[in-house]
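retry 2 of 3: previous attempt timed out while embedding magnesium ion. Reduced batch size to 1 and resubmitted. Inputs unchanged:
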Amino acid sequence: MATHPKTAEEAAAILARGQVCALPTETVYGLAADATNWAAVGQIFSTKKRPRFNPLIVHVLDAAKAVDVVQLDNCAARLMEAFWPGPLTIVLPSAAHSRVAKNASGGLSTLAVRSPAHPLFRAVLEDWNSPIVAPSANRSGRLSPTTAAHVIEEFGGGVPVLDGGPCEAGVESTIVSLTNSRPTLLRPGAIPAEKIEAALGHPLLAPGGGIEAPGMMTSHYAPTARVRLNAKEAQENEVLLGFGGTPEATLDLSPDGDLSEAAANLFAYLRRLDALGRPIAVAPIPDKGLGRAINDRLRRAAAER
Ligand code: TXA
Ligand code: MG
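retry 2 succeeded.
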């Protein structure tokens, strides 16, 4: 059983020893390690059983620290100014002088960077003063954790966790790639694409062909139970995950139809329903704003495995 850190300083000390530690972010809990330590980065992949080709996000304090690891252009600077700190991850060419371990980016010449808003994660970054890799703190392919208890459940208590309470956003960061001819949305997330498009002054491209974020395999975020989408009501043995006051819902993501509240509850409610051991039916969720991120996660949870 791991001994859990009580403070950001204790968590930073675990990272400094080259070990992994789960940290709270405003989106989901991350499994953190020193981005410059090859062995520590390797431990993330083995702890999560994550395929080695699936690159990690590097977390930095701000744009001034981002230049240590990636090459910024005007567009990147504009997005960082508008949305950092916060749940926007930007994929950029790696900086030639970057000290980030090569296994963090799965051998790619690009790197995903983000500046988390959670005060505890920021306190660790300040104390540690070095970039931190942190994928979601779940076993690969499973539901992302939004509380410290979820992380403990995922790894059977073997991973130390800095408890920062429940995550505010509840879905992962939005990922935009600036390595194509035009800014491309790789993953819908906690910042609605519409807001990013408004800041850029033009639409984001949708990823074409292949899987451009190597981690966006179709089946992902998967509970043990079968998941059926756009359900009007539960059938036979199913439990029902509602939205906006769905009649006879087992749990309702937001009785008032608030998409932020629904996103914050999404993974926790899927976990609770999964524990009932019955198939899960999910009511329709509007496909706009944060609803796009929620529907993306639900489609992956429902995909063929
Ligand atoms: O909100 C978040 O982003 C959370 C918290 C912990 O920060 N982190 C997170 O990390 O969701 P993870 O590893 O679960 O998802 C990262 C995604 C993966 O789909 C990965 O393939 C993609 O980012 N990614 C990372 N580096 C990339 C790169 N260089 N090019 C394209 N996609 C990349
Ligand atoms: Mg993940």
